[in-house]
Amino acid sequence: MNIFRTTRNAALLTLLPFLTFSQIALRPKPKPGFETRIKTYVDHLEIVDTHEHLMEEADVAKEGPIDFMHLLFHYADDDIKSAGMSKPEFAELLTDKYTVIEKWKRIKPFFEASKNTAYNRTVLLAIDRLYGIKDLNDSTVLPLSQKLRESYNGKWYDYVLKDRAKIKYSIQDVEKSRSANPMFRYVEKFDAFIRIHSKQEVLALGKEYNAPVSDLDSYIAMLAGAFQEAMGRGIIGVKSALAYHRTLKYEDTPKPVADSVFARLMNSPGDKTFAFNDVKPFQDYVMHQIIQLVRKNNIPFQFHTGLQSGDGNIIDNANPSHLANLFLQYRDVKFVLFHGGFPYGGILSTQAKAFRNVYIDMCWSAIISPSYSERYLHEWLETVPANKIMAFGGDYHNVEGTYGHSLIARAIVSKVLSEKVRDAYLTEAEAIDIARRLLRDNAIELFKIR
Ligand SMILES: [Zn+2]
Q1: Rg of the chain's alpha carbons, rounded to an integer?
Q2: Strands 47-52, 167-173: pairing kind
Q3: Distance of alpha carbon 41 from alpha carbon 428, whole angstroms
Q4: Distance from the CA of 319 to the center of ligand 1, in angstroms?
């Protein structure tokens, strides 16, 4: 009996290598050194950054004192607050109320408690690679602050974004402001025209655009005028971040219904705020009008999907599956689903696969979770045509974050593609071709960047 069991176990052990590599090897085994060659290619590739909120370099000092908090005020702050620091306490650290050492003493317990997250790892990576500072601690917080201040010399953005991050073009989501930096391209949001709950808000828009608004037709005319102005400013796409504030489900409201909601709004006292459900038909109608303008101007539409930054948001509002009716109704509009849909990666697989007009943009996702990004990039490469996936958008307010993020995004692309080559799913040449699409060519083609 014992002998039999031993023999059977030995037989199972010899089978094990075959059992653990269950994927079919489609391509020939790669030549040794492929991991290094793929990594070298990806690391040296000049890339397109599909999404940023970078302020002008000259404006950084105007926002507040430049010290180590400059690296913690965006994204890192979410996890520091999630670890327990209150919002008012954090906000004080962005002023000059305290010295650098006093600020560090206050934030240290919360940074220590949250430094495991990818947001905070990105900060640590950036200070290591840009300044050779190996950790954020009692002894580095002063020299780091000093180095940061000295870095803002008017050439810092070019050094970080071009020389170090090797970004060729970077698409900015910064409202109407424009920079002289020739690498920047722009998208704009028209969310303010949708996110209406009161007559006051309508009148404020009318004032901003110098347009008399009396009924829905004049409101839509104002929207069309604003859109045309933005086209004149050279936008290459439209973005919507409304999943922060409402569901992504936009019904096709009949015009008479939208008319009557708008009339009710305009006949109300100016300070009355309507509940979301009461204004939703009007909001939905306006979104459809914006999509029609996007279609007419033949530019892509970027949608925030998945995780909302900050606290207190409802994740189901941002579920990309709510958008399906728009994909079906507007087959000739290219919809770009942001942030790898975190945590709805599987839904993105089905949507980008099933709808020819749906694209995946992994902006922000590499620093939300590198392992999620790896996992889903594997799945997307198995399910979605490679011309519809974009693998990097920094989504930062500060360039140091963009740079750290770019390193993580490149590492994810190299790792996933190497694993696909190792498993003989792709050849090395196919992997190189896909890397170039994901990090550069797809964005250039989709946004017609010249
Ligand atoms: Zn963003």
Answers
A1: 25
A2: parallel
A3: 11
A4: 17
CA of 394 to the centre of ligand 1 (A): 8
For residue 173, report the distance from its CA to the centre of ligand 1, in Å. Answer: 7
CA of 23 relative to ligand 1 center, distance in Å = 37
Separation of CA 49 and ligand 1 centre (Å): 12
The span from the CA of 176 to the CA of 168, in Å, is 22
The first and second tokens of residue 72, run together, are 């913690």
Any idea where the domains of the chain sit in the sequence?
67-151, 157-446
Burial of 122 (0-12, 13-18, 19+ CB in 10 A): buried
CATH 3.30.420.10 fits 157-446, yes or no: no
Q: Rounded distance, CA 55 to CA 397, Å?
A: 6
DSSP, collapsed to helix, strand or coil, labels residue 53 as coil
Residue 53 Cα, ligand 1 centroid: separation in angstroms? 6
Contact 239, 302 (CB under 8 A): yes
Q: Which of 410, 341, 402, 338 is nearest to 74 (CA)?
A: 402
Separation of alpha carbons 411 and 409, rounded Å: 5
C-alpha 339 – ligand 1 centre gap (Å) = 9
Cα separation, 284 vs 81, whole angstroms: 34
346-365 pLDDT tens trace: 999 999 999 999 999 999 99
Q: What is the pTM of this model?
A: 0.94
Ligand 1 center–CA 268 separation, angstroms: 34
In order along the chain (450 residues), what is the average pLDDT of each group of 10 residues? Answer: 49 49 81 98 98 94 91 96 98 96 98 98 98 98 98 96 98 94 97 98 97 96 98 98 98 98 95 96 98 98 97 94 98 98 98 98 98 98 98 97 98 98 97 98 97
- Distance in Å, CA 342 to ligand 1 centroid: 14
CA 416 – CA 366 distance, rounded (Å): 13
| Cα 129–chain centre separation | 23
- Scan for tokens 């409402």, then name that residue: 246
- Rounded to the nearest whole angstrom, what is the distance from the C-alpha of residue 88 to the centroid of ligand 1? 23
CA distances, 89 to each of 84, 100, 422 (Å) = 10, 15, 49
Q: Are 226 and 193 in contact (CB under 8 A)?
A: yes
| Residue recorded with tokens 């919809």 | 335
Is the bond into 109 cis (omega within 30 degrees of 0)? no
Written as one letter, the residue type at 5 is R
Using the mean position of ligand 1's atoms as its centre, give its distance from the Cα of residue 414 in Å. Answer: 24
Is 195 within 8 Å of 245 (Cβ atoms)? yes
Helices marked H in 132-254:
141-151, 156-157, 191-194, 199-208, 216-232
